[in-house]
């Protein structure tokens, strides 16, 4: 098989003296659609942040497109869980999506026609073309989520990292976003962090359960939903019921 | 009003008002959307050390301010971003230390310090032509930098984390922006003085935000508001024979208060 897009070996991460990820090993290959499930505080977002180069691993190795994290920014499209921003900020949908072109342009290089074309394309795919001049603060939660996806797409990424893209949207919008991901998986490698145990099995090719350590569930020739469900229900449902407040990682039992 | 333009000092005052408005409209927009008014105040007050240095060395205090305000910008920026010192602590330390250096240097200067008051509270009526040239140069430099780095500055202002992920050197860009604030402070000292700089760095942009959809639009409007405040203040100070810098600030504050109250009462101001 070709070189993995993401490769983690014995990855450990401590944040504020707390072990968030313990001995995690993972390879994501081109064309994969990987869902990472797990309880809050289980390290899902941290894993994405390590891949993006925003957090440094305490030990172990990570490579992204064969390089250390942070060196492949133009190949990665990141969709954060939620954008914390000033709703009064004078910026339009278009300008936010254009920000996706930053990683494609050098310092001092101005945006050109190809940048505008890619941004327009991303708006088209996400169904936002009619909102391109809308001020970002005037968008609904679902629209904002699609703007974040459009921004990631505008950078023409090979790898898409999505952090709970359906967490703050209504059920209708949820299926729209999953339909969109189904379309995108044809051309992108996707890693999706989510709580959506119900819908996810239908869409993804692999599922990882993350709770400090990682348990991988590969699909066989056919996707055995029942087996998958029994595998991933445990860390999500059970843990959320035991620890409704998320709790600290130390309190979580190790499932793997 | 045109007859008062026969005086050279009045023409200079008008030029100073317009030139300083360009800097504070552009940079003030970033100060307001990034909510870094307090840093700007810190940089301005640290600059008092530079005024002291100017008196002590017998050079133009405006020239003395430049290294001091730049050092404050870089010092506060590096301490908070690299050494993880709490921002308000770093600002407070620089603020007070800069003023202390200024007081000591002025004390060491033989004789008394002429026009000290004008550097503290501004006097737009006494801006010499040589200072106008310096202000124009700084203006051009600020405008050029903002034009060159517009997409990067927008990115770090709106979503710093995404900017970092996109491969931008966000700390360096942040420091650059603080340095541009420092240069704006130098410009504003002649007009409203270091104590009141913070008002013109925030009020015109804050009022402009109510009517703007884009950062560039906000900058243009902030420049317009700043020119209006400065000229109205200048005219009122002429009519009532009171301090010009303070009058400009009061005009700005009054408009700010009115727009803030209208907004609070749910009156739509713009888009």
Distance between the termini of chain A: 26 Å
Relevant CATH superfamily of chain A: P-loop containing nucleotide triphosphate hydrolases
Major sheet of chain B: none
Largest interface: A-B, 32 and 27 residues
The structural class of chain A is alpha/beta
Which short descriptors sum up this protein?
heterodimer, A: 256 residues, alpha/beta, Rossmann fold, six-stranded mixed β-sheet, three-stranded antiparallel β-sheet, 7 helices, 32% helix, 23% strand, disordered C terminus, B: 271 residues, mainly alpha, ABC transporter involved in vitamin B12 uptake, BtuC, 12 helices, 80% helix, globular
What does this structure look like?
Chain A has 256 residues and is α/β, with parallel strands linked by helices. Chain A has one domain: P-loop containing nucleotide triphosphate hydrolases (Rossmann fold, 3-Layer(aba) Sandwich). Chain A contains seven helices and nine strands, in the order E-E-E-H-E-E-H-H-H-E-H-E-H-E-E-H. In chain A, strand 6 (159-163), helix 5 and strand 7 form a beta-alpha-beta unit. The relative contact order of chain A is 0.19. Chain B has a single domain (2-264), classed as ABC transporter involved in vitamin B12 uptake, BtuC, CATH 1.10.3470.10. Chain B contains twelve helices and no strands. Chain B has helices at 8-33, 37-46, 48-57, 61-81, 87-108, 116-121, 129-148, 150-158, 160-165, 170-209, 215-240, 244-264. Chain B is globular. Chain A binds chain B through residues 52-54, 70, 73-74, 76, 78, 80, 83, 85-86, 88-92, 95-96, 98-99, 102-103, 105, 107-108, 110-111, 133, 135, 151, 155, and chain B through 33, 35, 148-149, 151-152, 154-155, 157-159, 161-168, 209, 212-215, 217-218, 271.
């Amino acid at each position: 098989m070709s070189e993995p897009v993401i490769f983690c070996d014995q990855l450990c991460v401590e944040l504020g003296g707390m072990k968030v990820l313990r001995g995690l090993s993972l390879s994501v290959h081109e064309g994969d659609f990987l869902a990472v499930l797990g309880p809050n505080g289980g390290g899902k977002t941290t894993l994405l942040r390590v891949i993006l180069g925003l957090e440094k691993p305490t030990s172990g190795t990570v490579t992204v497109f064969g390089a250390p994290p942070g060196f492949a920014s133009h190949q990665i499209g990141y969709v954060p869980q939620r954008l914390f921003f000033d709703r009064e900020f004078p910026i339009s949908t278009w300008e936010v999506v254009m920000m996706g072109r930053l990683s494609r342009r050098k310092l001092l290089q101005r945006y050109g026609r190809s940048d505008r074309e890619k941004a327009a394309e991303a708006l088209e795919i996400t169904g936002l073309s009619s909102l391109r001049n809308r001020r970002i603060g005037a968008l609904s939660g679902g629209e904002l989520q699609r703007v974040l996806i459009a921004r990631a797409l505008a950078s023409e990424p090979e790898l898409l990292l999505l952090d709970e893209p359906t967490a703050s949207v209504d059920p209708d919008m949820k299926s729209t976003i999953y339909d969109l991901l189904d379309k995108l998986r044809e051309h992108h490698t996707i890693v999706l962090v989510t709580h959506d145990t119900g819908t996810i099995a239908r869409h993804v090719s692999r599922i990882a359960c993350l709770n400090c350590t990682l348990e991988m569930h590969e699909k066989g020739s056919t996707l055995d939903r029942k087996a998958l469900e029994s595998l991933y229900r445990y860390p999500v449902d059970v843990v959320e019921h035991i620890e409704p407040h998320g709790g600290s990682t130390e309190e979580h039992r190790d499932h793997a | 009003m045109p007859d008062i333009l026969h005086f050279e000092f009045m023409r200079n005052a008008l030029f100073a008002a317009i030139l300083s408005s360009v800097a504070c409209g552009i940079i003030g927009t970033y100060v307001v959307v990034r909510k870094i008014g307090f840093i700007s105040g810190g940089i301005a007050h640290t600059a008092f050390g530079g005024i002291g240095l100017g008196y002590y060395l017998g050079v133009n205090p405006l020239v003395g301010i430049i290294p001091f305000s730049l050092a404050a910008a870089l010092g506060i920026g590096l301490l908070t971003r690299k050494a993880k010192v709490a921002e308000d602590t770093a600002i407070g330390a620089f603020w007070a230390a800069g003023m202390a250096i200024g007081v000591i240097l002025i004390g060491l200067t033989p004789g008394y310090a002429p026009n000290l008051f004008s550097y503290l509270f501004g006097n737009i009526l006494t801006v010499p032509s040589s200072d106008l040239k310096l202000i124009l140069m700084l203006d051009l430099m600020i405008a050029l930098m903002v034009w060159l780095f517009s997409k990067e500055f927008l990115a770090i202002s709106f979503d710093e984390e995404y900017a970092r992920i996109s491969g931008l050197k966000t700390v360096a860009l942040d420091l650059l922006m603080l340095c541009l604030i420092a240069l704006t402070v130098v410009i504003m000292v002649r007009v409203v003085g270091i104590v009141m700089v913070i008002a013109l760095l925030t009020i015109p942009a804050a009022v402009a935000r109510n009517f703007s959809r884009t950062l560039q639009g906000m900058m243009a409007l902030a420049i317009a508001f700043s020119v209006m405040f400065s000229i109205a203040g200048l005219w009122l100070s002429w009519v009532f024979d009171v301090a010009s810098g303070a009058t400009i600030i009061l005009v700005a504050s009054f408009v700010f208060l009115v727009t803030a109250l209208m907004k609070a009462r749910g009156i739509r101001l713009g888009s």
